[in-house]
Design brief:
By secondary structure, the protein is mostly helical. It is built from 18 helices and six strands. Helix 2 packs antiparallel against helix 3, helix 12 packs antiparallel against helix 13 and helix 12 runs parallel beside helix 15.
């Protein structure tokens, strides 16, 4: 194995015939540091000193470097605190066998072996191996972490760089049918009205507005404006998430206005305990499952409702840019790939083509047609009725009287 792959260490002494010197090599960065000595004794003494200094320097233990990495990400505000915690836990699970070892001990073959093992090991939650999207995400996290470590000089290479992802990640989630979505809505509103279940009302907002779970659970009383007709999103997953949305449905407007009535502006809108503490987004998933069971529809997640909103919006003819903006996306490409169903996009495009064709070849107005052309364009049953009307004596007499004949 090449020496640069073995991690931080000191080697030597080696005698250099060309320079007539004894040398030691200190590997603690992208390039080794070379120290020269006149005698072998001095070189061995320098070797001992450099080894002790390297051991007493900042820790290069993998677990410690992981903590430093996520602390730096949070400090730079490149990721939220909750995101850093989730990603840290995922990486520690992937790299569990090496957390107490030097970070340089990871090699490409070990990295490939770890990833392959992850794709085949059942998870505690499902008892099945993780989906392709999940283990590909873990691989991307590892590649990003070791890329950062390489730039820091903690490793000589990124061992995960050449590891190829396995499988194909599925896009989008299963969605309810329209009738099922209506039953879901009715069950959610009933739970709110009868049991004052705030989370039931929260779980219907992704269906009506396409909100993310974090955007729903992150709302405070002051974010509901104009009698429940506007919801303000001041921050979110990306820079495009900042927006305000109009609530068109009167039943939702009324219930939102009812929910904020008499409450302090800084209270969490869907608080379940401490009024000032924002609830965990996982509670929204639990509420969605509860509503699905009450409505007797397939169990889905809040993200699926967000996708259904996108699908119905596209089918209804909403502009693609408007749908993407409402979802907090920078472009419609993300919306089309992960949210709106393909058949909705195809149907909407076909409808637009039909509209363009109809506009390109409009039907002639009646005033531009001759009497003969108008008669020919009438259905046979209409012509028969007109003929009967004209030949009937009473009709003729009435017609003559009307026109003054």
């Amino acid at each position: 194995m090449p020496r640069y792959k073995l991690g931080a260490r000191v080697t030597g002494p080696y005698y250099c015939e060309a320079r007539k010197k004894w040398r030691i090599f200190i590997y603690d960065g992208p390039k080794p540091t070379v120290l020269c000595f006149d005698t072998e004794k001095a070189a061995r003494k320098g070797l001992s000193h450099a080894t002790k200094k390297l051991r007493s320097s900042a820790s290069r233990i993998l677990g410690d470097v992981l903590a430093e990495y996520f602390a730096e990400k949070e400090q730079r505000e490149s990721a939220k605190s909750r995101t850093c915690k989730d990603q840290d836990a995922a990486l520690r699970q992937l790299l569990a066998s090496y957390l107490r070892d030097d970070i340089g001990r990871m090699t490409p073959s070990r990295a490939s072996e770890l990833y392959l093992k992850t794709t085949e090991t059942p998870t505690r939650k499902t008892g099945k191996p993780p989906a392709a999207a999940s283990h590909r995400f873990y691989l991307a996290l590892a590649q990003g972490f070791y890329g950062w470590a390489l730039r820091k000089g903690y490793v000589m290479m990124n061992p995960f760089k050449e590891v190829r992802p396995i499988g194909r990640a599925s896009t989008g989630k299963a969605q309810l049918r329209l009738d099922e979505a209506k039953r879901y809505r009715e069950a959610a509103l009933r739970l709110f009205d009868e049991r004052k279940d705030r989370l039931a009302l929260a779980a219907v907002l992704p269906l009506y507005l396409g909100l993310r779970a974090s955007e729903v659970m992150g709302r405070r009383v002051r974010d509901i404006d104009a009698g429940g007709s506007i919801i303000w999103i001041d921050r979110g997953k990306s820079k495009n998430a900042r927006r305000h949305l109009s609530v068109k449905a009167r039943p939702i407007q009324q219930r939102l206005a009812q929910l904020v009535s008499g409450r302090a502006p800084e209270e969490a809108l869907f608080s379940v305990g401490d009024p000032l503490k924002l609830p965990f987004r996982q509670l929204l998933n639990a509420a969605t499952v509860r509503i699905c069971k009450a409505a007797e529809v397939p169990v889905i997640c809040p993200h699926s409702l967000r996708g259904l909103w996108a699908t119905l919006s596209v089918e209804a003819g909403a502009a693609e840019s408007a749908v993407a903006t409402a979802l907090g996306h920078g472009s419609f490409e993300m919306t089309a790939k992960h949210y709106a169903q393909p058949e909705a996009l195809t149907g909407a495009k076909s409808a637009r083509v039909h509209d363009l064709l109809e506009e390109a070849a409009p039907e002639p107005e009646v005033t531009q047609l001759s009497a003969e052309q108008i008669v020919r364009s009438l259905p046979p049953e209409t012509l028969a009725k007109l003929l009967a009307l004209l030949t009937a004596p009473a009709s003729v007499e009435k017609t003559q009287h009307t026109v003054g004949l």
